[in-house]
């Protein structure tokens, strides 16, 4: 918790326009009720702070939370430690939906629902494909996810070639970004984040029961099919909302829940709520790296998470294999 | 009590079980026996809704409530490696918690009693992966007991236990049955043990009931020979039938 707060503050303090940190803190405190401080910021600095940096940190926190939450949810219902919005093809499916909207000139509020449809189609395809291609083993599901992602990406590329003028916009978005134009996107994202967050937090104990396998969970009176359906819907909704706003940011859904698991153990009763916290911290931190290492230019944040996430994925794969 | 009425199960072909009817009375211990593939496990799975069936399975005319009325111990349970014994047994309380509820003190009490009955207190904080086969089997039984259901369906509850632990565990089940009036159905391969504990034995073969009666009447050389093949001798020194394997099976 303290780490999260520290990272959030750091995210607000650091940026390409230099602002004196003490003034930033004074300006923030000034916004609280009954606190009246003279921040000493110029009008431009004040606008940078409240219209650019702050919403960016907030969006980073929400996107990180819901991607981590979605990853934990998928890992629970598929009983697969490698399940992740990115690896299951959900993110690519949602991306295809979003590209379609951008290409057709639709508004940004239309993007999340269409991205949700794309993501949902992708996860269903992955699940069906993974089952037919060799039972329910861990690797067959992931291989199916790779196939679905490749297919969605190929259609996306085709759409981009046909709509050359939007290519640049979509391309920067594909790499994952947290660039915002103020608070508008926070309000687009927030309802989806709240709905999927509430659902997954409520279902966290049932995810533990699912660890016993479908038959035994059913024997304990759990409607396995219904639980799986609801959790997949919530996780996909979260992924689609995140993808709509910030593009394809990979590996958050695998790094964060596994780190939490290493720290606290197997139970989703802890993994789910802590993933919200750690997901927010992780992505804000990654964003901090993304906009400082090559300052004043910025790296796409998806590049940072993939750079950290790919080796992490290999480690998870190795430890999981080793314990089987 | 629990009744199977004209129940049939098929996995996309001719029925592997039934149609058969079977009623187990309140407080009764029924031993299901029969060669591999006779349908013992399938019959139990149908009762907890894990396999689809036609016909009716109910508790003396009323439908069973999922998880609350019937506790089922599977033959091959799935044991999440890192889960501790306590957490595992606690999952047995799931049907009592409501969909999004959390455990109350009485759930923890129930878990404590189950652990104590099965001599698992010393292992309470061990991960399931670190248990021996017999310890794990006792943990699975503890989980089923924590459900506190009036009907207990146990699929090979002693398959991983040595003879001493097997006797201990079956005695515990018998005490609970008498004390709490539980209805118990066990599928057992050990025919002698089945005859010692069950008051009534049902021999299944090819998915149907072949004989149904007291252990002395079912565990006979004639019945067993007809369905398990030759080379089985049954002796009785006054404490019930004892089934003895003979080497010259195909002589």
Could you characterize what this model shows?
The complex is a heterodimer of chains A (324) and B (251). Chain A is built from 14 helices and no strands. By secondary structure, chain A is an all-alpha fold. Chain A has one domain (2-322): ABC transporter involved in vitamin B12 uptake, BtuC. In chain A, helix 1 (2-13) packs parallel to helix 13. Helix content of chain B is 33%, strand content 25%. Chain B has helices at 40-47, 85-90, 94-97, 105-117, 133-146, 163-180, 191-197, 215-218, 221-228; strands at residues 2-9, 17-24, 29-33, 54-58, 70-73, 151-155, 183-187, 200-205, 208-213, 232-236, 241-245. Chain B has a six-stranded mixed beta sheet, sandwiched between helices. Chain B has a three-stranded antiparallel beta sheet with strand order 2-1-4. Chain B has a two-stranded antiparallel sheet with strand order 10-11. Chain B starts with a strand and ends in a 6-residue tail after the last strand. The mean pLDDT of chain B is 90.
Radius of gyration of chain B, CA atoms, in whole angstroms: 18 Å
Helix content of chain B: 25-40%
The CATH class of chain B, by name, is Alpha Beta
Shape of chain A: globular
The assembly state of the depicted protein chains is heterodimer
Q: Label the CATH architecture of chain A.
A: Orthogonal Bundle
Major sheet of chain B: order of its strands?
5-6-7-3-8-9
Could you name the key traits of this structure?
heterodimer; A: 324 residues; mainly alpha; ABC transporter involved in vitamin B12 uptake, BtuC; 14 helices; 74% helix; B: 251 residues; alpha/beta; Rossmann fold; 6-stranded mixed sheet; 3-stranded antiparallel sheet; 9 helices
């Amino acid at each position: 918790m303290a780490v999260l707060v520290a990272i959030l503050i750091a995210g607000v303090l650091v940026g390409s326009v230099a602002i004196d940190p003490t003034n930033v803190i004074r300006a923030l405190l000034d916004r609280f009720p009954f606190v009246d401080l003279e921040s000493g910021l110029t009008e431009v600095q004040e606008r940078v702070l409240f219209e650019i940096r702050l919403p960016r940190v907030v969006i980073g926190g929400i996107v990180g939370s819901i991607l981590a939450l979605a990853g934990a949810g998928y890992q629970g219902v598929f009983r697969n430690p490698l399940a992740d919005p990115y690896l299951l093809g959900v993110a690519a499916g949602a991306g295809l939906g979003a590209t379609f909207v951008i290409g057709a000139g639709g508004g940004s509020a239309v993007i999340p629902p269409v991205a949700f449809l794309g993501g949902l189609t992708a996860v269903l395809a992955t699940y069906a494909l993974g089952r037919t291609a060799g039972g329910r083993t861990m690797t067959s599901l992931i291989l199916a996810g790779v196939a679905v992602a490749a297919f969605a990406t190929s259609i996306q590329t085709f759409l981009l070639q046909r709509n050359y003028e939007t290519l640049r916009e979509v391309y920067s978005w594909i790499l994952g970004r947290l660039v915002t134009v103020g608070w508008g996107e926070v309000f687009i994202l927030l309802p989806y984040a709240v709905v999927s967050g509430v659902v997954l937090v409520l279902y966290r104990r049932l995810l533990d029961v699912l660890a016993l396998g479908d038959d035994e969970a059913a024997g304990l009176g759990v409607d396995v099919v219904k639980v799986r359906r609801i959790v997949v819907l919530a996780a996909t909704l979260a992924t689609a909302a995140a993808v709509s706003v910030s593009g394809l940011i990979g590996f958050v859904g695998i790094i964060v829940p596994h780190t939490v698991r290493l720290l606290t153990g197997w139970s989703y009763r802890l993994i789910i709520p802590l993933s919200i916290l750690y997901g927010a911290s992780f992505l804000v931190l990654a964003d901090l790296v993304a906009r400082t290492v090559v300052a004043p230019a910025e790296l796409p944040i998806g590049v940072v998470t993939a750079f950290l996430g790919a080796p992490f994925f290999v480690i998870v794969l190795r430890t999981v294999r080793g314990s089987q | 009590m629990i009744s199977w009425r004209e129940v049939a199960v098929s996995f996309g072909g001719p029925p592997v079980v039934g149609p058969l009817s079977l009623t187990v009375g309140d407080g009764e211990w029924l031993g299901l026996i029969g060669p591999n593939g006779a349908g013992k496990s399938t019959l139990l799975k149908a009762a907890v809704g894990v396999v689809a069936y036609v016909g009716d399975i109910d508790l003396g005319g009323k439908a069973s409530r999922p998880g609350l009325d019937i506790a089922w111990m599977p033959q091959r349970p799935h044991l999440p490696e890192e889960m501790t014994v306590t957490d595992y047994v606690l999952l047995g309380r799931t049907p009592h918690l409501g969909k999004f509820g959390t455990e109350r003190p009485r759930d923890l009490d129930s878990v404590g009693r189950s652990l104590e009955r099965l001599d698992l207190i010393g292992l309470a904080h061990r991960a399931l992966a670190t248990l021996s086969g017999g310890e794990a089997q006792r943990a699975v039984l503890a989980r089923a007991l924590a459900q506190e259901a009036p009907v207990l369906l146990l699929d090979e509850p002693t398959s991983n236990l040595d003879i001493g632990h097997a006797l201990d565990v079956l005695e515990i089940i018998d005490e609970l049955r008498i004390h709490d009036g539980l209805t118990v159905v066990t599928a057992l391969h050990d025919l002698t043990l089945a005859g010692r504990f069950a008051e009534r034995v049902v021999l299944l073969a090819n998915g149907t009931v072949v004989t149904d009666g007291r252990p002395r009447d079912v565990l006979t050389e004639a019945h067993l020979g007809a369905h398990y093949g030759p080379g089985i001798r049954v002796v009785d020194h006054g404490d019930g039938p004892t089934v003895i394997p003979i080497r010259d099976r195909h002589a």
